[in-house]
Amino acid sequence: MSENKTLLEVKGLKQYFNINLGFFRSKLLKAVDDVSFSIRKGETLGLVGESGCGKTTVGRSILHLYQPTAGQVIYDGKEINSKESLKEFRKKATMVFQDPYSSLNPRMTVSDIVAEPLDVHHLYASKQERTDRVMELLGYVGLNSEHASRYAHEFSGGQRQRIGIARALAVNPEFIVCDEPVSALDVSIQAQVINMFDDLQDRLGLTYLFIAHDLLVVRHISDRIAVMYLGKMVELADAGEIYTHPLHPYSQSLLSAVPLPDPKAARSNKRIVLSGDIPSPLNAPSGCPFRTRCRYATEACAQSMPPFEEVEKGHFVACHRVKEIS
Question: What is the pTM of this model?
């Protein structure tokens, strides 16, 4: 599936937001705190975690839709650190947004929505070339020429998401950030869209960062899976390895909650129920952010954030007690 060449490398990515608390007080919200990973060419990296853990912020910060507070984004060996490098990067990297209802302009026809990136980057020589390219892109996602002159509100959620995907493909990208692209869709439509992502990857040689909270969806499409909790990355490994052998207590709890289609297996499956509520990122716990809900937490966990290190080949975990609990 993937070559060994690294296409995207993220080093020490931080994204902090200054939150106004009123009465001239403000506080830093650490949405993404020191996250590092790499994605190989042709690979799909799944990024999972519960709502509010910083998954979407990682995707947006990589594309510089939010200017990162700190850290490096290195694409194809070149760091994205200037207007010129960002402009080039934007021709090779795009995003499919979560909500197909709010991400499409209601005043534009489908043809203009899909062609917008072509207009921005001046990627056609004539009106005819622009029209031909739009038709080609709509064909990729299972839509046809009669859809081109219609408006977004005339389509179902699944069709709107297809339009969003066609728009993302317009610049002929190599890398796409898929931000929960199926979470707003009916389950019956989800499978079709996921399969389409797979087909497009094979046909166009795409590389994905696939952000989702549904672990079954992520397993179906990902080569490797990264798990985030409260702005930190806590585990990263091959998809099969994470499912059969999760090492971090949070990953173990997440996977125990995945519904199983086999009733016998479901009955014997032991749910690991977490105690307590997820802390606010504004008042994150000291040391390991998961320690307030972890059954293995000790005093050491409160003192320092465990390093994100390779404990087995290709399997990275951030946990002080990983050797004892695995």
Answer: 0.92
